[in-house]
Amino acid sequence: MKPESVKRQLVTLGKEEKELLDSVENDEWISNYETSEQFDIRKAELMKSARDALNADKETEN
Fold first, then answer.
1. What is the pTM of this model?
2. 15/20 Cα distance (integer angstroms)
3. In this structure, how many other beta carbons lie within 10 angstroms of the beta carbon of residue 20?
4. Which residues are CB-neighbours of 21 under 8 A, at least 6 positions away?
5. Positive or negative torsion for Cα 25, 52, 47, 6
6. Cβ contact 42:50 at 8 Å
7. What are the φ/ψ torsions at residue 14 (nearest 5 degrees)?
8. How far is CA 4 from CA 9, 10, 41, in A?
């Protein structure tokens, strides 16, 4: 399945999703990480978790 284009995805956002996106783009959110190292560690953890989930989905498809 081919992912939808970003433009098409933005068109399908609901009101609350659009408000959240605008809020993020306007820098209204503050990071709770005190250092960039903490952020990088958490980012790596989340990326690994996402990869593991995708791999698990692929295994169940076969």
1. 0.47
2. 9
3. 14
4. 10, 13
5. negative
6. no
7. -80, 175
8. 6, 10, 30
Tell me the domain boundaries of the chain. Answer: 6-61
Of 29, 26, 10, 8, nearest in space to 18 by CA: 10
Dihedral sign from CA coordinates of 46, 51, 52, 58? positive
Structure tokens belonging to residue 43: 């980012």
Least confident of 7-11, 24-28, 45-49, 53-57: 7-11
Helix (H) or strand (E) holding 40: helix 36-61
Helix, strand, coil % over all residues of the chain, rounded to 5: 70, 0, 30
Could you read off the pLDDT of 12-52 as tens digits, one per residue? 888 999 999 899 899 898 888 899 999 999 999 999 999 99
Angstrom distance (rounded) from CA 43 to CA 39: 6
